[in-house]
Amino acid sequence: MKFTKMQGIGNDYVYVNCFEEDVANPSKLAIAISDRHFGVGSDGLILIMPSQVAADARMRIFNADGSEAQMCGNGIRCVAKYLYESGLKRSDRMTIETSAGLKAIELTVSNNNVSQVKVEMGTPGLLRSEIPMSGENTQVINEPLQVGGETLNITCVSIGNPHCITFVDDVASVQLDVVGKAIENHELFPERINAHFVQQVSKNKIKMRTWERGSGETLACGTGAVATGVACVLNKLTERVVYAQLPGGELKVEWTEDNKTYMTGPAEFVFTGEWDEKNNTAS
C-alpha cells in the first residue's frame, strides 16, 4: 500500500489515496502506522476517498489510538494540497466532504505549488449538546471545572470536533500530559474532548498548546485554533481575526459577524513510501 506523509505546521498524518488503494481496517492501520518507534510515526491516519455526495473528495480521520475523528483542520489543508498537486482536482477552489459536513477550500497556488490553504470551517457549536457536554443545555463560557484537585475556568466550543479552552498566564508552565489528559477524559465529556491552554499576547495574537483526544500532545490543531479564536471573542480578549501561535507554526483564524469561521495556513509534503500491511513495516 502506497502512502504519503504530510504535515500542517507540525500536525503530521499519514495519507492514503483511496482513489487507488483500499484500506480494509483503518482503525487497526492507524494504530500501527502512527507508532513513532515501529511504524511511520504520525498523529494519525487520513484517507483521501471519492465523495459520497457532490464534493471533490472525502476525508476520514483516525487518531493514533485508532478512534475516528469528525474533522481535522491541519489535515484538510494537506488533503487539498494533495488533491491539487497530484492532479486529482486541478482547481484553486474545491469542496471536501468530512464527517463534520462539507468544507469549502480556497488555495493559494504559485508555479503549481500550493503554499497556503484557506478553509471555511463552518459555524461554531456553543451549546452543551453541540460539544457534547453533560449538564443544562447552555453555553460554557469561563465556567469552573474541577480537574485533579484544582479549579480551571473553561470555555467549550465545537468546530466539528469538541474543544475545551483554558486561558492561562504562561502556556509553557502547563503540565499538559497530566491536566490535558485529565480534561480529555473528564466525566462531563461523553465523547472525550480536545484540551487547549491559551495565553493572550495581544488583541490579535495568542499562544496555545494542545492535548488532542486520542493522540496526546500535538504540535498543532487546526479546529482547536479556530475554536480558541471563537473562545477569545466570547471572553472579550481579542478581535475576530487572530493569529494563533502553536508549537509547530502559525495559523490565521477568523470568526465573522455572520457566524462563519475560517482558518488559513500552510501544508507540506514530508515523504512517500509503501506499507507492508502483513508485517506492519514501511519502505
Brief rundown of the structure:
Helix content is 16%, strand content 45%.
Notable characteristics:
283 residues, alpha+beta, Diaminopimelate Epimerase, Chain A, domain 1, 2 domains
Can you characterise this structure?
The structure is a single chain. This protein is α+β, with helices and mostly antiparallel strands. It folds into two domains: 136 residues, Diaminopimelate Epimerase, Chain A, domain 1; 132 residues, Roll (Diaminopimelate Epimerase, Chain A, domain 1). Helices cover 16% and strands 45% of the residues. It is built from four helices and 19 strands. The chain has a 19-stranded mixed β-sheet that branches. A hairpin with a 2-residue loop joins strand 7 and strand 8. The chain starts with a strand and ends with a strand.
- Mind summarizing the main beta sheet? 19 strands, mixed
CATH architecture call of the largest domain? Roll
Which runs of at least 5 residues are low in confidence (pLDDT < 50)? none
Radius of gyration over all CA atoms, rounded = 18 Å
Note the total helix count: 4
Determine the strand fraction and express it as a percent band: 35-45%
Please give the CATH class of the largest domain.
Alpha Beta
Distance between the termini: 10 Å
- The CATH topology of the largest domain is Diaminopimelate Epimerase, Chain A, domain 1
What is the ordering of alpha helices and beta strands?
Answer: EEHEEEHEEEEEEHEEEHEEEEE
What is the averaged pLDDT score?
A: 96
Shape call: globular
Number of strands: 19
Q: What is the structural class?
A: alpha+beta
Helix content, binned percent: 10-25%
CATH homologous superfamily designation of the largest domain: Diaminopimelate Epimerase, Chain A, domain 1
Tally of separate domains: 2
